[in-house]
Amino acid sequence: MRFDLTTRASPDQVLRALTDFSDQRLRTWSRTLDPATYEVREQGDTWAVARESTPRSPFWIVARYDWSDPAVVRWTEVENSYGGRGSGSVTIAPAEGGGSRLAVEWSSYDATRARDRIGLFVIHRTPMNRLIARMWRSALDRYADGEAA
Question: 124 Cβ partners below 8 Å, 6+ apart?
């Protein structure tokens, strides 16, 4: 899956929203993060390992996030519900006129069950990426508005 989006959030705000693994993460990403499965397993200054899923999704992942380069947040799946592996990244750049431009890439591979391969195909190869991009933009715009208030 790949998508680009522009948000009102500054690059610093985007980085904070993506790398805040406190309880605030559940509020920031309330439409895309299921509190029933969310769990921070480990955390350092520029990395974290967390279990996450989307509400009503049959899929969950445990991902190791790394933001040692503040312009790129990367993640690698270390465990998941579909038996495969995956990785992704968000590249953050200032947008002309304010805000940020994001380039998001995520790939999953090696799903073991046919049902899971079909589900991942639907997520990665359909207009689902546009829906996810809209949800991310909405969350980041709300984050920017909340910090500015």
Answer: 1, 106, 107, 108
pTM of the model: 0.85
Residues 126-142: what's their mean pLDDT? 87
User: What are the extents of the domains in the chain?
Assistant: 2-148
Could you name the CATH architecture of 2-148? 2-Layer Sandwich (3.30)
The dihedral through the CA atoms of 114, 120, 123, 124 has a sign that is negative
**pLDDT, tens digit, for every residue of 66-94?**
999 999 999 999 998 887 788 999 999 99
Burial of 98 (0-12, 13-18, 19+ CB in 10 A): exposed
Under 8 Å between Cβ of 10 and 18: no
| 63: CB partners within 8 A, 6+ apart | 49, 50, 52, 75, 76, 77, 78
SS3 80: strand
Residue 56 CA to residue 105 CA, distance in Å, equals: 22
Residues 6+ apart with CB under 8 A from 80: 59, 60, 61, 62, 86, 108
Mean pLDDT for the stretch of residues 137-147: 93
